[in-house]
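Input protein
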Amino acid sequence: MVKKLESTLLNMVLVLTGVAVVMGGILALVNHLTEGPISEVNKKKTDDGIKAVMVCDDLTLGKTDTVTQTINGKEYTYIIYQVKDAQGKDLGAAVESTTMGFGGDLKVMVGFNPEGTILGYTLLAHAETPGLGAKADKWFQKGEKGDIVGKTPSEPLTVSKDGGQVDAITASTITSRAFLLAVNNAYNAYKATPATDGETGATEHIEN
């Protein structure tokens, strides 16, 4: 009886190991097959975001910089996409920036011209309350109540409740503060990157 029991346990271990190996191989294959399409989708999403915030369809990407900052003990990464027009003229940069909102991380992409003036923005991700904080995707757009387009955050943008010049989203002051902080940090990250003049290297055209 003892030998039979040992044999059964051994068989179970071998079977489970075999199943684990096979499943691991299947997962690796699926990951390999989907990696390309997922990468293409993410690239298109980024390209579309850059075109939207730079308010220009015919763009060429120059170099991409990454800046990290530690705020309140948490490290944030800013991605700066240097942008040129079809003739190679510097248009500024699109910057990805993340801060902590009311419900979680709030991630935006902001477009700046070479002088640091805001051209546009798009809300990439958020965990804000639907119908309130989620309004940030439109509230601060050109012509809206909290319009920040055309402003230059050399002096940090703040809500009017804090003595600033931007109207906060109704009943969502915390989200508004977080959003403006993300914009201010994006500006600081952009200004912290070296000038592109004289830079060499490959560029990438963004397809329409």
